[in-house]
Amino acid sequence: MSRRAETVRRSATHGLLSLGLLLMTAPFLWMALSAFKTTEDLAARPPVWLPMTWTLEHFRDLFTVLDLPQYFLNSVVVATFVTAGNLLFCSMFGYALAKLRFFGRRPLFGLVLAGLMVPANLLLLPQFVLISRMEMLNSYAGLILPFLAGAFGVFLMRQFMLSIPDELLEAARIDGASEWFIFWRIVMPLLKPALATLAIFTFLGSWNNFLWPLVITNDPDKYTLPVAIATFAIDPTSSSGSNGMLMAGALLVVLPVLGVFIALQRYFTQGIATAGLK
Amino acid sequence: MTSAPTTTMTTTESHAPGGLATPPPGHRPGAARGRLTRKHLAGWLFSSPYLILFATFMAMPIVATLLMSFTDFGLRDITDPMGAEFIGLENYRELARDDEFRTALGNTLYFVGVGVPLTVLAGLVVAVLLNRGVGRLRTFFRVGFYAPVVTTIVAVAVVWRFVLDPYDGLISGVLSEVGVTSPDFLGSQALAMPSLIAMAIWRNLGMGMVIFLAGLQSIPTEVREAARMDGAGPFQEFRRITVPLLRPTLLYVTVITTIGYLNVFEEPFVMTDGGPADSTLTVSLLMYKEGFDFFHMGYASAMAYVLLTIIMAVTLLQLRLLRDKTR
Prior knowledge:
B: 0% strand; cell membrane (chain A); Carbohydrate ABC transporter permease (chain A); transmembrane (chain A)
């Protein structure tokens, strides 16, 4: 291929991708800018693209209407426990599936794969009945327990565990190490990148989870952030749900997630590639 | 986030389970048996926390949903689940007659039928472009295209509702700059569903893109170069080299996207509440309304099972259709 053709091809690629990127980021930019516009600017036609005067009024209003620190705390508590549970329980099961040749291992792995396919919506009704029978509606326990160990985590950890050489574990066994010692002191330290990947996925999954907390909480003190924002956004009786406030709310929900993602993005691509292709 | 069983499980099994049953000759049988028992015990002990949670919050609910779907389970039965009356297949018969359910099913299939191919294609196109040597900017683009995948769907739906607003929205703003009046996207029966589909493509194409990129990087450059030397243009290269070699990855992305889209709930819930005139009512949304607004939980359970059956059937069909051609 000639030099010129190569240059043309490159610019075309870059042009197309930049256009795509603009389309992808436009809603985010629109959200961020709108959150700081005055109500007059928001309604102006032709539109005011950049705020004439930057204002924090929507954030102030939002904080007076919604107890955002409480919802933030709830989301953090739930996501932290869910992540800790998944890291421990999925690693343990993943270790057993990858490295312990015990009776029943294959059918159990089949169970995990089947678990990957079952949509969460299907389980909603009986889970609700169960949690309400356990008197855990409107409680952290109710928000956390059903998500404490997911099939995806087991699958991911098993895939990573398979790459640890058996000889290493066998040597430790001959030296008399217990299985727990091998798991906790040898395998887990080797899997720090994998654990980081699982932690990020689980934490964000929990942070973004909507249907379950929507169903089992009706006490605003236990709302997670998405539930609080959604309830506020669709409440037909609240005249206060102005676009400015909604964009301010959306920005507050999205910002931590985007921050974590951008800081740790290489773990994401690694994790997805591992789960999908190995 | 789910993962494909299909592309993954074949490569890794190293041991036949029967291999350990007979200890090698010369071994002391007692010691071997002790080690063996220890291994079985350890395996089950390591598995038990997960299995207990799995049994409680997954296996039991799957069975319970099925049982509930044969009853008239309602609000008062939550405190006394055994009190629900067994009504056989009545819920399923009712579903077959229910026009609203038929509408929801049709809408869901519309969402999947249009949304899945476009999402997969968009992800593939971006991945191919990114793979054509964008150099250092690749990470930058990848982050931008993937960002919507990780953001909270509720926030995304709230933002998109405003983007599509016919008076103060982003699109209406752009249109007003060129003197065109914006249609009322979410208020129109014809445009509401396509709007939700557009948003779903925007939100999910990054997932496919990342997986396709990993797949593309595993295609040896020699193959591409050979094709180019034989005079293949970019389009031919895409059709004859990229797509066939990516088939397992395509299968995986198609399957997970389809499963996700068949369950579509948050988008219509926040943006349209199923309207206007049920034009964006999906099966999951109807199930939620029946179950938690009206507490027709037996009926909603029957809906859940119909949806699960469809999901399994579609998944198996896709595995079959997309797989056999590779052999």
